[in-house]
Specification:
Layout (H helix, E strand, L loop, with lengths): L1 E3 L6 H13 L18 E10 L2 E10 L3 E6 L2 E2 L12 E4 L5 H4 L2 H15 L6 H20 L5 H39 L5 E6 L5 H6 L1 H7 L10 E6 L2 E2 H4 L2 H22 L5 E4 L8 H10 L5 E5 L12 E5 L2 E4 L1
Parallel strand pairs: 1-11, 1-12, 6-10, 10-11
Antiparallel strand pairs: 2-3, 3-4, 4-5, 7-8, 8-9, 12-13
């Protein structure tokens, strides 16, 4: 599906609505109040469709006074984010370049989200590990202030090591599962010899005890997967520091395509793919390559012009302020 319209007409709002109603949250902001039209107190997004042979009707209501409510086939969900268990939706926006060009925290967050999609049973592992690190940090500060002793710190050190080891193993598994697809798609897009590499080792009790004095001085745990990084390279160049914005864009697109392929292999449906303003920054050859590589499922692309898409779309929508029309 191709969505066309002038700048500011509302194309990105349409994609944001699709993400909200299928995932339970906006890819742009976690403040639901920002999603409600100025001067209004509430908003609603609603879609109908099918997943395989199963009919789906989803509704998400936003209210400045009553919060957020999600319904799936008429049944209210305890949390809107539960929608992610029903539909996989992947989105590209210009802001997603932070996955490559941003700091390590952005990449950790991205690959941890992939982990949650690929393995829902382990989706809470990053949060559980972060909570244990927070408890160890609090214990370090109590110990440094003389309110506790080292025996009280030991259980938290052991928990950091146990959960940290699980998290590192899970991230390595995800990166390994994405790696081949990422290299293939990147090469097809003109980014040769692209690779993902995990930077960091599972923490150990010996390592944490060896740096205890430094940790006490700083009041923080100075080793573990909360400090690790994933390097994205092209021909051995770290694209964060030595890649052009065009190369960084291609790397993010290759990651999205690899993730789409991985999820399709693990689930019974291809993810919904949302591509916002992706064609304007690609040359004609790479536009053609991207369209050829798109998954067989539903993809929604926004553009300011019809001719930016190098083939006939299955469906064409035109957006003007306040209106969406066929053709």
């Amino acid at each position: 599906m191709l969505v066309v319209g002038a700048n500011g007409a509302g194309k990105t709002n349409l994609l944001e609505s699709l993400h909200l109603v299928t995932q339970g949250f906006s890819p742009r902001t976690r403040s639901d109040a920002q999603l409600i039209r100025f001067g209004r107190d509430a908003a609603r997004t609603q879609v109908r469709g099918t997943r395989g042979e199963r009919a789906l009707e989803i509704r998400v209501d936003l209210s400045k006074t009553d919060g957020k409510r999600a319904l799936l086939n008429g049944a209210r969900l305890s949390a809107a984010e539960q929608l992610r268990r029903e539909i996989q939706t992947l989105v590209f926006t210009p802001e997603r370049l932070v996955v490559v060009k941003g700091g390590p925290a952005a990449r950790r967050a991205y690959f941890d989200r992939v982990l949650g999609r690929v393995s829902p049973a382990r989706s809470q592992l990053p949060a559980e590990y972060a909570a244990v690190v927070g408890q160890r940090n609090a214990s370090l500060r109590r110990l440094a202030a003389g309110y506790s002793d080292r025996d009280a710190l030991a259980p938290w050190t052991e928990r950091v090591v146990a959960l940290g080891g699980e998290l590192v193993a899970a991230r390595l598994e995800v990166i390994g599962a994405l790696g081949e697809g990422f290299r293939t798609y990147a090469d097809e897009l003109g980014l040769s010899d692209a690779r993902l590499s995990y930077e960091g080792e599972a923490p150990s009790v010996i390592e944490l005890e060896a740096r205890l004095e430094r940790d006490l001085e700083r009041g923080t745990t100075g080793a573990g997967p909360h400090l690790h990084d994933v390097t994205v390279t092209c021909a051995s160049r770290d694209l964060r520091s030595f890649g052009s914005q065009g190369e960084q864009r291609l790397a993010v697109l290759a990651l999205l395509l690899a993730e789409t392929q991985l999820l399709a292999s693990r689930w019974d449906a291809t993810p919904l793919v949302l591509l916002d303003d992706v064609l304007s920054e690609l040359d004609p050859d790479r536009r053609t390559a991207l369209v050829r590589l798109l998954p067989a499922g539903q993809t929604v692309i926004t553009s300011t012009t019809r001719d930016a898409l190098p083939r006939e779309p299955a469906q064409l929508l035109t957006v003007t302020p306040g209106r969406v029309e066929q053709g």
